[in-house]
Amino acid sequence: MTKYIFITGGVVSSLGKGIVAASLGRLLRSRGFSVINQKFDPYINVDPGTMSPFQHGEVFVTDDGAETDLDLGHYERFTDTSLGKYNNVTSGSVYQHVIKKERRGDYLGGTVQVIPHITNEIKSRIVGATKQFKPDFQLIEIGGTIGDIESLPFIEAIRQFKSEVGIGNAVSIHTTLLPYLPTSGELKTKPSQHSVNVLRSYGINPEVLVCRTTKPIPKTEREKLALFCSVPKDAVIECRDMKSIYEVPLALEAQNLAGVVLNALNTENRKANLKEWENLVERIKNPKKVIKVAIAGKYTKLSDAYISVVESLKHAGYANDAAVDIKWINSEECMDYETCKNLMKDVKAVVVPGGFGVRGIEGKLNVIRYARENNVPFLGLCLGMQCAVIEYARNVAGLKEANSTEFDENTAYPVIDLMLEQKNVQGYGGTMRLGAYECHLKKGSVAAKAYGKNVISERHRHRYEFNNEYMKQISDAGLVFSGMSPDGMLAEIVELPELDWFVASQFHPEFKSRPEKPHPLFKGLIDAAVKRL
Ligand code: GLN
């Protein structure tokens, strides 16, 4: 029978609840339990797919094509489990479903209300994921901060759910902040007490507190928290700021978080096998070299916008005993080639990530041209691949004004064009080519060597594609199309095998990299960069 762990957050947002949920998932997995994570987001958008990366950070895409919260990326990376559309639930999707049922007449004249109709739908999403995965433990993180109006239906659903499954089958972990006041030299517990009081006023008594803090929690503060928040002393878990997020599971293990949770769930503790994870953290903490890698995109002010790309680069670094030092290059600052050259001078590799719209495109083309002409290892992702094709078409294949119809509808050489299946698509939500598709690799290509196989499956999120009318002209000029869809119609990977590393993919490899298993395309990039040191 599945047992449930609910994770709420108090005092402030951005506490790292997602990392705590992912870390606890890893700690339970390392004890041989099966685990899945789920994220509840209280906003009204049906999914984050339509939100600006500036506001919401990256949109994480699952194998089954769901556009989800970036926390799902952490869950997948920490627990090495592939998740899907059942793992991210938003208020928007819950209301959309209930309203659809109401319009269909399913409620037979009844008044449709938050309680029980919305809360029932939320509970059915919990159970739906349980039925699909049948895990030993299901960890459910509730976005937002306790006290927010919009998360109330989720909290109420949890209250009901906890009492329905009974004591010992569900627990709540409340993550809070202990601010440090330098003037008095104290960690303050009052905000956490208030936050727990609010949670209790909703009918939920947390069994465990995870406290974010910059300093160790002294015994007296620990006792105070236990007393005022009605939890045992050993259930007050300290979560200090760490240099790397991958250290968090070990820090929480040292505080016996999993043991406390298992005890509250009447489940016998098991010995954790964290050997590999410990080796990983050892490598992370003791890099033998530093590699400067540029990410040239337009959302550079918010690194969360490219979080899976950043993590994938780090993973490939770990495999090389190297720390990756990211240099953020705003592609809009590269519109002038001389400025671009200067910005690129000190980098050992460059990634041009995904994106939408014309802003900064000419800058990205300059970055790619510089990488190609100077043999700087380059990886293009989705839009980055489309830009690599445009750059090659313009500067090598002689198609001077080549472009994507996304940026210039009337371009003389539309080397990138809207996919046929996209031509009649209406609306923006969930309508791109999404999720995992197979791709066949050309034997002996750089890509095939990197993957060590000829058939792969990768995740997509795009509307435009390479226009096959230009296949002959551009491949005659030297660009190798080394990955194609199984029907041979869709270009998935391009490469220049004569360079140290020049590979670009229409898909997003960054969604499948894991800390202990770096993605082959990122590993190839960083391996090539290391060789140049
Ligand atoms: N804008 C491009 C397209 O829709 C690339 C998308 C992306 O990079 N995710 O095809």
Could you explain the architecture of this structure?
With 533 residues, the protein is an alpha/beta fold. It has two domains: 3-173 and 234-279, P-loop containing nucleotide triphosphate hydrolases (Rossmann fold, 3-Layer(aba) Sandwich), CATH 3.40.50.300; 288-531, Rossmann fold (3-Layer(aba) Sandwich), CATH 3.40.50.880. It is 36% helix and 22% strand. The strands form five sheets. A nine-stranded mixed β-sheet has the order 13-12-14-15-23-22-21-18-19, with helices on both faces. The protein has a seven-stranded parallel β-sheet with strand order 5-2-6-1-7-10-11, with helices on both faces. Helix 1 runs parallel beside helix 3 (71-79), helix 5 (114-133) packs across helix 6 (152-165) and helix 13 (337-344) crosses helix 14. The longest helix is centred in the N-terminal third of the chain and has 20 residues, at 114-133. Bound molecules: glutamine.
Topology:
Layout lengths: L2 E7 L7 H13 L5 E7 L11 H4 L3 E2 L5 E2 L2 H9 L8 E3 H14 L9 H20 L3 E6 L9 H14 L4 E8 L2 E2 L4 E2 L2 H12 L6 E6 L5 H11 L6 E5 L7 H7 L2 H8 L10 H11 L3 E9 L9 H13 L2 E9 L6 H8 L4 E4 L8 H13 L4 E4 L1 H13 L7 E2 L9 E5 L14 E9 L4 H6 L3 E8 L1 E3 L4 H6 L3 E5 L6 E5 L6 E4 L14 H12 L2
Helix pairs in contact: 1-3, 1-9, 4-5, 5-6, 12-18, 13-14, 14-15
The protein binds glutamine.
The site of glutamine has 10 residues, from β19.
